[in-house]
Amino acid sequence: MDERAPQIADLLLLIERELRQLGWWQAEAPSAEALASQTPFCVDTLAFEQWLQWILLPRMKMLLESDRSLPAVSGIQAMAEMAYREQSVNVRGLLELLGRFDRLLTRA
How far apart are CA 34 and CA 32, in angstroms? Predict the structure, then answer.
């Protein structure tokens, strides 16, 4: 088991909580076609917060639960900064959590 797994699991829960607090957590999944996008971060079919909820969080949870190798690098915070650069909602907390996530993965 990767020694970072408990910290990553905690961060995933914090990211989910932050998305809920922002009002961005969705009860209904996007269409199968939208989720199947081959474009990085599904930018052609999903909002960034949808990608976090429906792609990143489930995939990371699956990796942790199955004790599979974790990614060695992550650039999620930079993508979030681009996605929310014109956002009027305060996303500082989300960006901080994503930065912690990136640093933890890169610290392999």
Answer: 5
Phi, psi of 22 (to 5 degrees): -75, -10
- pTM value is 0.93
**What CATH number has the domain bearing residue 71?**
1.20.1440.40
> Which phi and psi angles does 88 have, rounded to 5°?
-85, -20
pLDDT in tens, 45-79: 999 999 999 999 999 999 999 999 999 999 999 99
Query: What residues make up the domain containing 63?
Result: 5-106
Q: Which are the contacts of 17, defined by CB distance < 8 A and separation ≥ 6?
A: none
CA diameter of the chain: 40
